């Protein structure tokens, strides 16, 4: 992020108020974990975000235990993934796209990865946030 309060305000509103545009509709992405077992240190974790529209592209955001928001990656149908620093790969994360399903993989889950995860899409100049998904060790 560039330090401007505007993007942080927008993300904060999305994290706390997913119903800001009224009732949840077919526009909002859905987010869930593919794992059903309790997390362990070093475990691979896959999160899946289903976009309600084709070829929307998805942003992945992490909110740590201290409430800090961190951009992880953007992936679309048109281009390579863009991680922090505009790089195409990450030592910590992988992303995949299959149709309208976008996956974020935490390669080796650590305490620094605990927190809330959110995916969001941009459609018609509006941001649509999934509900946050809390991911913590037991």
UniProtKB/TrEMBL annotation:
<keyword id="KW-0325">Glycoprotein</keyword>
<keyword id="KW-0391">Immunity</keyword>
<keyword id="KW-0472">Membrane</keyword>
<dbReference type="GO" id="GO:0009897">
    <property type="term" value="C:external side of plasma membrane"/>
</dbReference>
<protein>
    <submittedName>
        <fullName>CD8A protein</fullName>
    </submittedName>
</protein>
<keyword id="KW-0393">Immunoglobulin domain</keyword>
<keyword id="KW-1003">Cell membrane</keyword>
<dbReference type="GO" id="GO:0045065">
    <property type="term" value="P:cytotoxic T cell differentiation"/>
</dbReference>
<keyword id="KW-1015">Disulfide bond</keyword>
<keyword id="KW-0812">Transmembrane</keyword>
<dbReference type="InterPro" id="IPR036179">
    <property type="entry name" value="Ig-like_dom_sf"/>
</dbReference>
<dbReference type="InterPro" id="IPR013106">
    <property type="entry name" value="Ig_V-set"/>
</dbReference>
<feature type="domain" description="Ig-like">
    <location>
        <begin position="29"/>
        <end position="121"/>
    </location>
</feature>
<keyword id="KW-0449">Lipoprotein</keyword>
<dbReference type="GO" id="GO:0002456">
    <property type="term" value="P:T cell mediated immunity"/>
</dbReference>
<dbReference type="InterPro" id="IPR015468">
    <property type="entry name" value="CD8_asu"/>
</dbReference>
<dbReference type="Pfam" id="PF07686">
    <property type="entry name" value="V-set"/>
</dbReference>
<dbReference type="GO" id="GO:0007166">
    <property type="term" value="P:cell surface receptor signaling pathway"/>
</dbReference>
<keyword id="KW-0732">Signal</keyword>
<keyword id="KW-1064">Adaptive immunity</keyword>
<keyword id="KW-1133">Transmembrane helix</keyword>
<dbReference type="InterPro" id="IPR013783">
    <property type="entry name" value="Ig-like_fold"/>
</dbReference>
<dbReference type="InterPro" id="IPR007110">
    <property type="entry name" value="Ig-like_dom"/>
</dbReference>
<feature type="signal peptide">
    <location>
        <begin position="1"/>
        <end position="22"/>
    </location>
</feature>
<keyword id="KW-0564">Palmitate</keyword>
């Amino acid at each position: 992020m560039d330090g401007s309060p505007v993007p942080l305000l927008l993300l904060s509103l999305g994290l706390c108020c997913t119903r800001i545009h009224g009732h949840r509709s077919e526009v909002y992405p859905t987010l869930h974990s593919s794992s059903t077992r309790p997390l362990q240190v070093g475990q691979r974790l896959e999160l899946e975000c289903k976009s309600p529209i084709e070829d929307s592209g998805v942003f992945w955001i992490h909110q740590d235990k201290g409430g800090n928001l961190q951009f992880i990656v953007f992936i679309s149908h048109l281009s390579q993934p863009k991680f922090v620093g505009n790089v195409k790969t990450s030592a910590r994360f992988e992303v995949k796209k299959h149709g309208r399903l976008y996956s974020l993989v935490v390669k080796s889950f650590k305490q620094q990865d605990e927190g809330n995860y959110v995916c969001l899409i941009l459609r018609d100049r509006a941001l649509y946030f999934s509900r946050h998904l809390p991911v913590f060790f037991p």
